[in-house]
């Protein structure tokens, strides 16, 4: 008997979409045996990375396990609302590397969330590789590095890691493996579901993309068990600072260009970001806006940060953002939502050079 997430899909899709009962039982055995769990997500954590990390931590904490969430870099302040009193320790490894390494090396289970390979956890890679404990991956990106893990849940036709984790947690109570002496795993509680619903909402852009029947199934399950969606939406969409919208106006009216091939692009320099007093997370969503223009097929947004330009790419169906990210921006991601980075150096010294580079690589990408 398989636990099927998408039993409505065409046979070839269903094939890709199931989680086997065997894998659920293996995950259950790993979770049951663990006392100290290190949870690791990707650098520049977004709603999905934070939501899945906190959701898992809340589920395991309720089972009496000790958890530590190791973030390779800080979470944006726009996600502060997601934390609750009583949540487990969250360690920002960019400030407290020794503590994060200690958490990973002292764990008897390491769970990586929302990353396909441990390189995406930046400075935490070394401790992760040194750790001798069992390792579990739950992710929705292409090409997971299976060799680095004892068990991998990888599904691409799904909204988010939060959704995948939801379906796994849902399957635990009836999987036949005991959580502790004679007891089955419990259903996830509302605080866990709230975190998962938050990450699913951000990764699906509030049900605008990557939304499957299983996504609505999850939403329905969360709402019927007390998750306050209105509150999540209000935290996510109605609590920004004014500075974000001033910058957004500047980005759209002064910075965005559209190439002959329908590529909208904009580069914000460190000076411009500073002028508007921009904080981490406050340009979230900018890259999606130009896709609202009929003639635009792809949107590329760069912002200068230290010695790199961080790159965000979004595309309409039929155009691969992840291929361009891989080929020209040292990155990757999903078919329609990808990212990467450009090093600032002799070849690309400033924002103007980055704009020229974008034009050059996208003209080549579409012109062929
Ligand atoms: P965002 O534009 O929201 O920062 O990132 C969109 C998606 O692109 C992420 O969910 C992630 O899958 C991918 N991504 C972003 N930055 C990088 C990167 O530096 N390397 C890789 N491999 N993927 C990235
Ligand atoms: Mn994600």
Annotate the secondary structure layout.
Blueprint: H1 11-17, H2 21-33, E1 36-40, H3 47-62, E2 66-71, E3 89-92, H4 97-105, E4 109-113, H5 125-130, E5 135-139, E6 151-154, H6 161-171, E7 178-180, E8 183-184, H7 190-203, H8 213-224, H9 229-237, H10 242-255, E9 257-258, E10 263-268, H11 270-275, E11 298-305, E12 308-315, H12 321-328, E13 332-333, E14 337-343, H13 351-367
Parallel strand pairs: 1-2, 1-4, 2-3, 4-5, 5-6, 10-11
Antiparallel strand pairs: 7-8, 9-10, 11-12, 12-14, 13-14
Helix pairs in contact: 3-6, 3-7, 6-7, 7-8, 7-9
Bound molecules: guanosine-5'-monophosphate and manganese (II) ion (MN).
Relevant terms:
368 residues; alpha/beta; 6-stranded mixed beta sheet; 14 strands; globular; disordered N terminus; binds guanosine-5'-monophosphate; binds manganese (II) ion
Order of helices and strands: HHEHEEHEHEEHEEHHHHEEHEEHEEH
Radius of gyration: 21 Å
Q: Give the overall form.
A: globular
Bound molecules: guanosine-5'-monophosphate, manganese (II) ion
Q: Total strand count, please?
A: 14
Strand order of the largest sheet: 3-2-1-4-5-6
Mean pLDDT figure: 94
Task: Give a written overview of the molecule.
With 368 residues, the chain is α/β, with parallel strands linked by helices. The chain is built from 13 helices and 14 strands. The strands form 3 sheets. It has a 6-stranded parallel beta sheet with strand order 3-2-1-4-5-6, sandwiched between helices. Strands 9-10-11-12-14-13 form a 6-stranded mixed beta sheet. A hairpin with a 2-residue loop joins strand 7 (178-180) and strand 8 (183-184). Helix 3 (47-62) packs antiparallel against helix 7 (190-203), helix 6 (161-171) packs antiparallel against helix 7 and helix 7 crosses helix 9 (229-237). It is globular. It starts with 10 loop residues before the first helix and ends with a helix. Bound molecules: guanosine-5'-monophosphate (5GP) and manganese (II) ion. Manganese (II) ion binds at residues 48, 114, 140, 160-161, 203.
């Amino acid at each position: 008997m398989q636990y099927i997430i998408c039993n409505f899909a065409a046979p070839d899709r269903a094939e890709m979409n199931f989680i086997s009962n065997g894998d659920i039982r293996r995950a259950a055995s790993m979770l049951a045996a663990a006392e100290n769990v290190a949870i690791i997500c990707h650098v520049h954590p977004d709603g999905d990375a934070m939501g899945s990390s906190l959701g898992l931590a809340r589920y395991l904490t309720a089972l009496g396990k000790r958890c530590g969430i190791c973030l390779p870099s800080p979470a944006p302040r726009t996600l502060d609302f997601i934390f609750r009193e009583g949540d487990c320790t969250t360690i920002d490894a960019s400030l407290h590397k020794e503590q994060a390494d200690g958490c990973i090396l002292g764990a008897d289970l390491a769970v990586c969330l929302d990353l396909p390979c441990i390189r995406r956890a930046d400075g935490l890679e070394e401790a992760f590789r040194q750790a001798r404990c069992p390792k579990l991956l739950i992710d929705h990106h292409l090409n997971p590095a299976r060799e680095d893990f004892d068990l991998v849940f990888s599904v691409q036709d799904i909204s988010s890691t939060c959704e995948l984790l939801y379906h796994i947690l849902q399957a635990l109570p009836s999987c036949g493996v005991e959580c502790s002496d004679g007891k089955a795993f419990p259903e996830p509680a509302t605080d866990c579901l709230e975190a998962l619903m938050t990450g699913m909402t951000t990764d699906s852009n509030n049900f605008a993309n990557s939304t499957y029947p299983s996504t609505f199934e999850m939403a329905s399950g969360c709402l019927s068990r007390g998750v306050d969606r209105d509150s999540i939406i209000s935290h996510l969409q109605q609590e920004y600072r004014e500075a974000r919208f001033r910058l957004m106006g500047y980005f759209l009216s002064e910075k965005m260009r559209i190439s002959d091939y329908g590529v909208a692009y904009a580069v914000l320099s460190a000076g411009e970001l500073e002028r508007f007093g921009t904080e981490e997370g406050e340009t979230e969503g900018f890259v999606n806006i130009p896709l609202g223009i009929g003639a635009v097929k792809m949107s590329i947004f760069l912002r200068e940060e230290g010695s790199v330009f961080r790159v965000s790419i979004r595309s309409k169906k039929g155009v691969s953002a992840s291929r361009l990210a891989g080929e020209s921006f040292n990155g990757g991601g999903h078919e329609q939502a990808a990212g990467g980075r450009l090093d600032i150096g002799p070849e690309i010294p400033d924002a103007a050079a980055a704009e020229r580079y974008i034009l050059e690589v996208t003209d080549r990408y579409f012109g062929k």
